[in-house]
Amino acid sequence: MAFDYAAKIQALLANADDESLSDEARTTYRAKAEELMIRYRIAEEEALATEGAEGATPIVREVRVTTRNVGPIYVYYTATFSTIARHCGVRVHLAWNEGYVAHVVGYEGDVRYAEFLWTAALLMFSTRINPRWDDALSVDENVWRMRNAGIKRRQIADAAGWDGNKASDRSKVQRIYLRECVRRGEPARAAGLGHQADTFQEAYADAFHTTLSWRLREARDAADSVAGGIVLHGRKERVDEAFYARFPAYRPRPAENVPAPEPCPKCAKAKSGACRDHRYLLVTAADRRRWDRMENSPSALAGRDAGREAAEGVVIERGHTRANRVDGGGHGAIQA
Fold first, then answer.
1. Looking at the DSSP assignment, which residues form a beta bridge with residue 64?
2. pTM over 0.90
3. What is residue 233's three-state secondary structure?
C-alpha cells in the first residue's frame, strides 16, 4: 500500500497549528511536515518517470483570499497570497466573486501546503490589521485590538454598542485603549486626535508585506545554500501547461516588434511638461504631500512599526530549493 503523503502532511500541519501544544512540539511538527513535502515531491517525480503522468497531474482548487469588505488594503492580501503561491510551486489566477478568489493550479500536495501557509499568514495579518469585535474577549481587549489596528474611535464605539457620534463615547474608547497599553507595558500606537487611521493601516500593511517578503527571500537563500538544490526536471513546465490549459489568455505570446510611441507635441509645448491628456504622469503637489504623510507622519511611523513587528512574528521554516519553485518571485515558506 502506497504511503499517503498528503494525509500525513495534513495531520502534521494540523498538530503544528494546535495552540494547546508546546512551541517546541509545534516546531517539530512543522519541520517534519516540510521534510515530508520534499520527499513527497521526489516520490511524485519518480512515479512520473516510471509510470507516466497518470495519477500525478496538477489539480485546480479555489481559495478565498478576501471578502468584499476588506477595503483598499486588499492588494496586500493578494500580494501575500501570491508570495506563498510562488514558494509552493503553484500558479494562481485571481478572480472577483464577492471578494477575491484564487484559482490555484499545481500538484495536490503543493496546493494543500499553500492553503495551510495562507491560513497561517492570514491569521497573523488580518487579526492585527482588520480585527472585528469578539464577544468572547473583554471590552478592554477588544478596544485595544481594534484601536491598535488603526480603526477609528467612532467605529469602535459603535462596535461596542455605544454611540460613535458622541464625543464622550469616542473619548471613552481612547481612555480604555491608553489604559490597556499601560497595563501591557507597551507604547500607544494610535495616540492623540491627530491619528490617521487610513494612513496607519496602509503603512502597517505595506511594512508587513515588505518585511515578510525580505525574510522569506532570506530563508530561501539559506535553504538553497544548505540543500544544494533538488532538481525536479519538468515540474515547473507541467504546472505551467496545466495553468495555461485552464487559463489560455495567460499563455505567453511571441514577442512583437512594437514601434516606440511618438513624442507628444502638446507635452513639448506645455510649461508643466505634460499636456492635459498626460497630466497624470506628473508628480503633483498632492502626490508629494501624500508621500510625506506615508513616510513621515506619526500615524505612518506607528503603522510601519506595527507591521514590521507582526511580520517578524511569523516563524519561517526551511523553504523549497530554487529548482522546485515556479518562476516569478523570490520567496520562501512561512508558518505562523
1. 101
2. no
3. coil
